[in-house]
UniProtKB/TrEMBL annotation:
Biased segments, Basic and acidic residues type: 422-439
Regions annotated as coiled coil: 519-564
Organism: Oryzias melastigma (Marine medaka)
Region spans: Disordered: 301-390, 420-461
Similarity annotation: Belongs to the bZIP family. CNC subfamily.
Bias (Low complexity) ranges: 350-366
SUPFAM superfamilies reported for this sequence: A DNA-binding domain in eukaryotic transcription factors
InterPro entries recorded: bZIP, bZIP_Maf, NFE2-like, TF_DNA-bd_sf
This protein's UniProt keywords: Activator, Coiled coil, DNA-binding, Nucleus, Transcription, Transcription regulation
Protein name per UniProt: Nfe2 like bZIP transcription factor 2a
GO MF, one annotated term: RNA polymerase II cis-regulatory region sequence-specific DNA binding
Family matches, as CDD domains: bZIP_NFE2-like
GO cellular component term, pick one: nucleus
DNA sequence: TGACTGTGTCATGAC
DNA sequence: AAGTCATGACACAGT
């Protein structure tokens, strides 16, 4: 089976190769045509497949081991434990830790870094806390509501343990958040993240938990964070996406009590996402909120009364746009969804201004320089060159990469936030060819390319937005239609500096897209003119050839006419029978066809 | 080190 | 009038 996958991948690569060679105008970058580059990609991909095979094998082993402890109830088709839980909780935790370890070391190939991560995990979340109900958020109601999928090693599943008895989720302290930020900023983790992303896209990952946990771009992820009313994927979703998930996976994924979980738990769970690592640790599995400055979260949530979510209100017809929504709602997803509609938003990184102009003369400059909030360009530049500082978390917050090719899992329309629906309703702007913007889209051919300046240096606008605590993502600021943008702005009381910055960001972002489009058009014009030049050259050659032929024909006709003339002239005799001298006479034809012998002395005689 | 290239930004005019 | 788009010009970073 793996061989088939590999073969098809090779064929795909070859096909892609041919297609790229055929059509260079698709906006593909240069490295796309670099054979060595693709070769390297190919090898990496093969390596990943091998790693994945190993992982799958390991997971199968684990599944077997767990299933061995279960018995299939033939009436209900459910797996039930043979006996009462035989493993003490501590043991269950240990087995889960083993799973973690395997996942980490095999997926990353860099044990040291993940050992550190694990150590941090252990310090952050003592094993006793693995009973956190939040861990089970991915379970569909059918599992969560009953005891159909009880694990023998899960005492927490026994009815004696009620959610109220559980250790309440603890908020991650700022220090720990920072530590997590640093972990996430590790290069190997970035690579791991990419690897896992690709793996999740191409394979049916047996131990997959919820896609929302695996992939922060997954809309359900947002739903879980933003709309606690739809906290869990439907059973059908799980059937389709994780069709090969068995009870063992659920049990390994759910190390806590299955009973119903209040939305507040769900929300809090996002803050504590690292606890989900026992299911399948990926950096992506962390909710962005984890890496969010508490200050921002708390401030924004307190502004809008969302800090606790203690009550479960009715489903609002149009949830208000909160900073939390915006932060957790990756713009990619918003626009991915909108991209499904006929009219689309401008391409991906349209809003990410990454270049700093030393003489920015935008209206906002005066604001910055006015010192109203003490954020000069030099300071921004300091931020630029200060990796690991605030910029890193902010870059996590603002999803820089706009990936139109992302998975588009089917989600219920009702699950979209009101804002998203609005976006769906009113996508006004024409979407340019996504390939143009795909310099940052995660095409496999750009992955290993050294990061561009725009990737390395974070957007000044993002940094400014962060400095001013602007509760919108840059992408949203730029890409929202004007009505939605105004509505969004009206829902937040922004001060003058914030307003100026937001409008500057929007202006720059739009202009950036315009410039890109302009350049693209310019290039297309150049190509078109070159083609036109070629065709004109061909026509010129053709005309020259025709002219040459015509000249030849004319010459021949003149020659024939001359000989005919001489022949006619030679037959003309005067009264005495003498021939006329061509030097003294010439033949001329009148308009009525009559031929005259005209003396060169201007004397005419009618023949 | 200078030329070239790609990109972001600003200014300006048009719509 | 405001917003958006198109485009020339400039600066900067990377090659």
């Amino acid at each position: 089976m793996e061989m088939e996958v590999g073969d098809s991948t090779n064929q795909d690569l070859d096909l892609i190769d041919i297609l790229w060679k055929q059509d260079i105008d698709l906006g593909a970058r240069r490295e796309v045509f670099d054979y060595n580059h693709r070769q390297k990609e190919h090898e990496l991909q093969r390596q990943r497949q091998l790693e994945e095979e190993k992982r799958l094998h390991l997971l199968r082993e684990q599944e077997k081991a767990l299933l061995a402890q279960l018995k299939l109830d033939e009436e209900t088709g459910e797996y039930i434990p043979h006996t009462k839980p035989i493993l003490p909780p501590q043991q269950a935790v240990i087995s889960i830790e083993i799973t973690q370890d395997a996942n980490f070391t095999e997926e990353t190939g860099d044990g040291m870094s993940f050992d550190e991560c694990l150590q941090l995990l252990a310090e952050t979340f003592p094993v006793g806390e693995t009973e956190n109900p939040a861990v089970c958020m991915e379970l569909p109601p059918v599992y969560a509501s009953g005891n159909t999928m009880m694990s023998p090693e899960q005492p927490a599943l026994t009815p004696a343990v009620l959610p109220s008895q559980l250790t309440p989720p603890q908020r991650v302290t700022p220090d720990l958040e920072e530590a997590w930020m640093e972990i996430l900023s590790l290069p190997e983790l970035q690579g791991f993240k990419m690897q896992v992303d690709e793996t999740m896209e191409t394979t049916n990952y047996p131990l997959q938990t919820s896609p929302a946990v695996q992939n922060p771009n997954y809309p359900n992820h947002q739903l879980i964070q933003n709309t606690p009313y739809y906290p869990m994927p439907s059973a059908s979703d799980l059937k389709t996406k994780n069709s090969n998930i068995g009870p063992a996976e659920y049990m390994s994924a759910c190390d806590g009590p299955v009973p119903s979980m209040a939305p507040s738990d769900i929300n809090r769970m996002n803050v504590e996402a690292p606890q989900v690592v026992n299911a399948n640790f990926t950096p992506d599995s962390f909710c962005p909120n984890v890496f969010y400055p508490n200050t921002i979260l708390e401030e924004s949530s307190s502004q809008h009364g969302l800090e606790e979510n203690e009550n479960v209100p009715d489903i609002p017809s149009k949830p208000s746009f909160t900073p939390m929504d915006l932060y957790t709602l990756s713009p990619e997803d918003v626009f991915d969804r909108s991209k499904r509609l006929p009219a689309d938003f401008p391409d991906s990184d349209s809003g990410i201004s990454t270049h700093s102009s030393p003489h920015a003369s935008s209206p906002s400059k005066s604001v910055y320089e006015g010192g109203s909030y003490g954020f000069s360009d030099s300071e921004i530049d300091d931020l630029d060159h200060n990796p690991g500082s605030a910029e890193s978390d902010y870059s996590e917050m603002f999803c820089l990469n706009f990936q139109p090719d992302d998975l588009e899992p089917a989600i219920p329309e009702s699950a979209l936030t009101g804002q998203c629906k609005q976006l769906d309703k009113k996508p006004k702007q024409h979407m340019e060819d996504p390939a143009e913007e795909s310099g940052h889209s995660s095409t496999p051919f750009t992955k290993d390319k050294p990061k561009k300046r725009s990737d390395v240096r974070l957007s000044r606008d993002e940094q400014r937005a962060k400095a001013l605590k602007i509760p919108f993502t840059v992408n949203m600021i730029i890409n929202l239609p004007v009505d939605d943008f105004n509505e969004m702005m009206s829902k937040h009381e922004l001060n003058e500096a914030q307003l100026a910055l937001v409008r500057d960001i929007r202006r720059r972002g739009k202009n950036k897209v315009a410039a890109q489009n302009c350049r693209k058009r310019k290039m297309e014009n150049i190509v078109g003119l070159e083609h036109e030049l070629d065709s004109l050259k061909e026509e010129k050659d053709r005309l020259l050839d025709e002219k040459s032929k015509n000249a030849t024909n004319l010459k021949e006709m003149k020659r024939q006419l001359n000989s005919l003339y001489l022949e006619v002239f030679g037959k003309l005799k005067d009264e005495k029978g003498n021939s006329y001298s061509p030097s003294e006479y010439s033949l001329q034809q009148s308009t009525d066809g009559s031929i005259f012998l005209v003396p060169r002395m201007k004397k005419t005689f009618k023949i």
